[in-house]
Automatic annotation (TrEMBL):
The keyword Transmembrane applies. It is a single-pass type I membrane protein. The keyword Signal applies. It is found in: Cell membrane; Membrane. InterPro entries: Leu-rich_rpt, Leu-rich_rpt_typical-subtyp, LRR_dom_sf. It holds the Pfam family LRR_1. Gene3D superfamilies: Ribonuclease Inhibitor. It comes from Liquidambar formosana (Formosan gum). One of its GO terms (cellular component) is plasma membrane. This is Piriformospora indica-insensitive protein 2. Keywords: Cell membrane, Glycoprotein, Leucine-rich repeat, Membrane, Receptor, Repeat, Signal, Transmembrane, Transmembrane helix.
Amino acid sequence: MAFFSSSSSSSSSSSIPILTLTFLTTLLSILVISHQQPVLNSAEQDSVYKVLESINSAIPWRILFPDDLCSSAPHGVVCDYFDDTTAAANVTSETTTETPHITELSFGYVSDYNPNPPCSPNSTLSPSLFTSFTHLRKLFFYKCFTESQVTIPDISPGFGSTLEELVFIDNPSIVGSLSGILGNFTSLRRLVLTGNGLYGEIPDGVGDLINLEQITIAANHFSGGVPVNFGKLENLKVLDLSHNDFEGTVPDSIGRLTGLLKLDLSYNRFTGKIPEGIKILQRLEFLDLSFNRFGNFGIPLFLGEMPMLREVYLSGNLLGGEIPEIWENLGGILGLGLSGVGLVGNIPGSMGVHLRSLCYLGLDNNKLEGTVPAVLGLLEGVREMNLENNQLSGKIPFTAKFTARVGKKLRLAGNPELCVEEGLISGKNSTRLGHLRKCKKPDIPNAVLLQGGSSVQLSSSPFMILGLLVFLSLHFGN
């Protein structure tokens, strides 16, 4: 009986934790249900499916992701929850509920770290994209429209008021104009449209998007000039209009973009003078005006007043003139490109003295002459130096260590009067510098004094040299 009683008591006590666990599980389920996040409304969910199907119809999106897309969605589809305050029925008080909406849509596989829904060669743009997402903050397409031409559809007036990032990268088959894209994007911070088929002029309305921090519209077919009202974009940090068909002069109002860190206008058809307004951009770190038609005003002296500059590229313009002495305050420059700008005169040694951080120097295809300053060989950070196709002469001042470090990126060809010491051409340097002629050894004969058909070698005594000078003066002075 004692044993039975003990066993019965043990069984009874062990059932208590089981009942407690069951009760807690039930209670937890009730709490989860009562606090379950609301689901995405069916209309917005269906619009997401339509957009996914338009970029890749071969994938069964509705089968793979049948549940609420705010709780289970492909990478690149992002939701957020917003407070929705409404008046309660027949009650004077108000109630606040959370309502989910799509806030980000990113398409086009980028990497394993950004496995966005992959696009197909036949990707299209669903009209739902520009009509159904009233809370969208980011829209991103990468290499989605590469074959069949896709025209950007009309955007409804109500779309885009919340959009902060509009990014289309490497979509050569997408066509349209900026005026058809921007709509009412009053909240836009980043406009990145690189490597697409977009065309037309920059609409004046861009100047009203005062929240813009980045405009990168490189490698399209944009034309016209830079709008004067760009100067209103006081929050702009990056302006990249490179590789387009822009033309005309660049307005001085660009100097009003005082927060600018990067200015890239390269590979266009801009003409006239490089605007003086650029010198006001005291925070500017990257300046690329290369391969335009700026001309005949020399290298701007105001660059010497911009100590924050790290990269300056002016190659391919018609600037002319000599290299100015402006480098004292530019010790932080890493890259300097002055190729093919019509430079004449010598390479100033001050470049080697002050540009101590230099990694790249391009002075090729000019009309520079004289010797290469020895101090250029003391720049320890240089990884590429191009002095090709000038009229430089004399012995190159670089050590074997310098030439080994720079390697094939030390370009000196096209300077017929430039020479290299024979001792420097060895090993790998024989292929790097072998195209240069060898410097001739100086031919300094021993001084002799002829006496009766025999020669007597002079000593190096200064008295003997003085005597020789007197002798020559007396016998040949007349």
